[in-house]
Design goal:
3-stranded antiparallel β-sheet; globular; alpha+beta; 31% helix; 28% strand; Ribosomal Protein L30, Chain: A; 2 helices
Amino acid sequence: MPKKLAITQVRSGVGRKFKHRRTLAALGFKKHQQTVVHDDSPALRGMLRQIHYLVQVYEIE
């Protein structure tokens, strides 16, 4: 069973690069300080690497 990641947006996407704002939307963020849960995968890790300065990531069971 894949690990799950809880991802919390801690900084605003306003004024950021268009590609970074689209990545936030693709992850499912609609509001600042929102938390979403996704299965861990290489594609997800790549998205998180791109916006690492906007989010906090926690592993959950």
